[in-house]
Amino acid sequence: TQVYNFSSGPAMLPVDVLRRAQHDLCDWNGLGTSVMEISHRSKEFIQVAIDAEQDFRDLLQIPSNYKVLFCHGGGRGQFAGIPLNLLGDKKTADYIDGGYWAHSAVKEAHKYLTPTVFDAKVTVDGLRAIKPMSEWQVSDNSAYLHYCPNETIDGIAIHETPDFGDTVVTADFSSTILSQPLDVSRFGAIYAGAQKNIGPAGLTLVIVREDLLGKAHKSCPSIIDYTVLNDNDSMFNTPPTFAWYLSGLVFKWLKEQGGVAAMDKINQEKADLLYGVIDNSDFYRNDVAPANRSRMNVPFQLADSALDKLFLEESFAAGLHALKGHRVVGGMRASIYNAMPLEGVKALTDFMVNFERRHG
Ligand code: PLP
């Protein structure tokens, strides 16, 4: 059976990339050893690092006054990294609470400052939504504004592009980076854990405007200090070399697919197909307002939750893996990142229609 993995992360990777990595595991670049086993200071690995950064920059058209850092610590590491690097001599920062992950960032921020929290969650006609950016309140004395454009668990997305003048906007792009074009110049700092749309877990990418460097709190651990990382080409300590290498292969694969513009188109097609089947049925439901629906993570409920177990068993047997919803939401969730082909979503929707026919 062809397997499609709908995991929210660590998530599916492009099969071409995995095949290449499989080959490279025993003999990389004719060295007779794998990329995992060579020094991060070797000229071979440094070339991997340089190429990966350049490809990532090309894909997102990152302006030259932004630094790209390859870090440890995941998305949660940056919940601390953002305040420790960007608070400066301010006492507060604005946090937009739009769901589970934005809220988790608020909780971590409390260790370093008193965040000014704006609850953007709202229910409109029984559907979960996010207040438009024009209603977000930004305080004068704040060091930065933080939000999460794609809530992986809630299946809620903020599709607007921020426009807050001089305010330093920071954002957690862990589950949406590289899925569509992004105007980096609207942000002070962007971060993303790799394990959803980029590569293996263990690597976290940070894009930071260079004038924001040099403000880290004196207690900031060196390994998440943006200035230290930048001064050392992200090799202050041993970086997650294999994850970096594999992410580099994903960037090359993305370029071959036509870059983020091509991904944007296919991701829209995938999401339209899946939401279409959910909306055309009384058997399945998604309770997010259409304007805030995530294109990456699609939670859905069965009208009769007693069928959940059977749905999961049968879908797994049909090669459709990891559809169980997050424990805080329940029901189902299909994560359909860049590496999920349209055929995978078709296989899922065919299964859903068939399951409904048999059990509806
Ligand atoms: N932010 C978002 C949007 C996420 O989806 C996740 C993980 O699922 C995290 C942060 C936490 O990432 P990590 O486990 O890499 O710390």
Termini Cα gap: 26 Å
- What is the N-to-C order of secondary-structure elements (H for helix, E for strand)? EHHEHEHEEEEEEEEEHHHEEHEEH
Largest sheet: 7 strands, mixed
* Side-by-side strand order of the widest sheet: 2-12-11-10-7-3-4
Bound molecules: pyridoxal-5'-phosphate
Helix content: 25-40%
Number of contiguous helices: 9
Helix-and-strand structural type = alpha/beta
- Overall geometric form: globular
Which strand-content bin applies to the residues? 15-25%
Q: Return residue spans where pLDDT drops below 50 for at least 5 consecutive residues.
A: none
Overall pLDDT: 97
What Rg do the Cα atoms give? 21 Å
How many strands?
16
Keywords:
binds pyridoxal-5'-phosphate; 360 residues; single chain; alpha/beta; globular; seven-stranded mixed sheet
Description:
There is one protein chain. With 360 residues, this protein is an alpha/beta fold. The protein is built from nine helices and 16 strands. It has helices spanning 15-26, 43-60, 74-86, 100-109, 226-231, 241-257, 259-279, 308-317, 342-359, and strands at residues 4-5, 66-71, 92-97, 116-119, 121-124, 127-130, 142-147, 150-151, 156-157, 169-172, 189-193, 204-209, 284-285, 297-302, 320-321, 332-335. The strands form five sheets. Strands 2-12-11-10-7-3-4 form a seven-stranded mixed sheet. Strands 13-14-16 form a three-stranded antiparallel sheet, with helices on one face. The mean pLDDT is 97. The structure holds pyridoxal-5'-phosphate (PLP). Residues 9, 74-76, 101, 148, 152, 172, 174-175, 193 line the site of pyridoxal-5'-phosphate.
